[in-house]
Amino acid sequence: MEGVSTGASLVDAHLEALPEPQRSTLLTVRGRLLVQLPFGEECIKYRMPSITVQGKGVAAYDGFTNHCSYFPMSGSVLDEVTGIPDWAVATKGTLQFPIDKPLSAALVRRLVKARLANVSDVQNGKRFDFYEDGAVKAEGSMRDGQLNGAWRWYRRDGSLMRTGRFRNGVQTGTWETYGADGTLVKATQF
To answer: Is this prediction's pTM over 0.85?
Structure first.
């Protein structure tokens, strides 16, 4: 992927290069993001520490001379999130906060939830639905706002639960349901 370096070690190195108190503040934000997104992948994206889910940016963050910033990777997320404190400044795509005051766990949770919903809002193309922790709940294709083509649903533990196909939003073909151990439990013809 162009412009992306992967790995927690790169994030570690980036954060280690920051002066205090930005480093400690952003380590706290990072920890809160990782609690919310245990299935997320850490990387450097646009030269900032970031977390992605299924290749989609969910959050980036960094320290600057007079503030720290959280980037929700979408211009609409901050408009959807309530409870942004007075000491933080929200613009279209950035939430700036003091260098010594990390974002609360509750605010990070709301930001992540809004971004995951934003990532899932696909009218045409590949769509992912997520559990709150970033684990994939369902994946498949959309066409003109309708489920179309092959779809797969997963349990919270990541095991495959069901597969099936849609044609313009209507179930078609053979649908299969699997047990948690991966065995086929039921096949239904539509």
So the answer is: yes
